[in-house]
Automatic annotation (TrEMBL):
This is Menaquinol:cytochrome c reductase iron-sulfur subunit. Component of the menaquinol:cytochrome c reductase complex. The Rieske protein is a high potential 2Fe-2S protein. It comes from Cohnella fermenti. Belongs to the Rieske iron-sulfur protein family. The main subunits of the menaquinol:cytochrome c complex are a Rieske-type iron-sulfur protein (QcrA), a cytochrome b (QcrB) and a cytochrome c (QcrC).
C-alpha cells in the first residue's frame, strides 16, 4: 500500500454495521417464539420432574400382629405396605418372620435370602430350627445369622410395640448378630 492509499483509508469515516429491518424482525420474532415455547415446555418439565422433588416420607410403621400371639418360635406373617412411586400407588404384600428372642424382645426378620434373593423357610427337614433357602442351600440361625452360603445375615425390620400390637417399620441391617 502506498502512502496516499493509507492516508485515504485513515480519513474515511468508520462505517457502522447497523441492524437491518429484516434482522430486527427476525430477532424479535425469534425471542417471542422462544418465550412462548418456554411457557409451554416449563410446566411439562416441572410435571415430569415433580416426583423427584417431593421429599420422601419416613418409612411408616404397619400394624401386623398382637404381641400376645408372638412366640419364641418364628412365625411367618403377611402384611401390606402402602407405597407411592411417582404417580403410581400400590399396596404390595410383604412378609416377615416374627419371634421373641431369648431376652424376651420381639424381633422380625426379612424372608429374603441374602445370597440371591430367594424366599427362605423356617425349620424344614433340611434344616431343623434354622432358616433354610431352597434355591442354593443357604442357612441362618433363629436370629438371622448366616451359617452357610449367604454372605450376610438376614435383614431385620424395625419393631415398635404399642397398645399390645406389634408394628413393623423399614428394613435395616441385622442388629441381633
Amino acid at each position: 500500500m502506498s502512502h496516499n492509499e493509507q492516508q485515504d483509508s485513515a480519513h474515511k469515516p468508520v462505517k457502522r454495521k447497523e441492524m437491518s429491518r429484516r434482522q430486527f424482525l427476525s430477532y424479535t420474532l425469534g425471542g417471542a417464539t422462544a418465550f412462548m415455547a418456554g411457557g409451554v415446555v416449563l410446566p411439562m418439565l416441572r410435571f415430569a420432574v415433580d416426583p423427584i422433588l417431593v421429599k420422601k416420607e419416613e418409612g411408616g410403621f404397619v400394624k401386623v400382629i398382637e404381641e400376645s400371639k408372638v412366640t419364641t418360635e418364628p412365625q411367618q406373617i403377611g402384611f401390606k405396605v402402602h407405597q407411592v412411586d411417582g404417580w403410581y400407588e400400590s399396596d404390595p404384600k410383604m412378609e416377615a418372620y416374627i419371634a421373641k428372642g431369648e431376652d424376651g424382645k420381639v424381633f422380625a426378620l426379612s424372608p429374603v435370602c441374602k445370597h440371591l434373593g430367594c424366599t427362605i423357610g423356617w425349620s424344614g427337614e433340611e434344616a431343623p430350627n434354622e432358616y433354610h433357602c431352597p434355591c442354593h442351600g443357604a442357612r441362618y440361625t433363629k436370629d438371622g445369622k448366616n451359617l452357610k452360603v449367604a454372605p450376610k445375615p438376614l435383614d431385620e425390620y424395625q419393631v415398635k410395640i404399642e397398645n399390645g400390637w406389634v408394628y413393623l417399620g423399614p428394613l435395616e441391617a441385622n442388629t441381633r448378630v
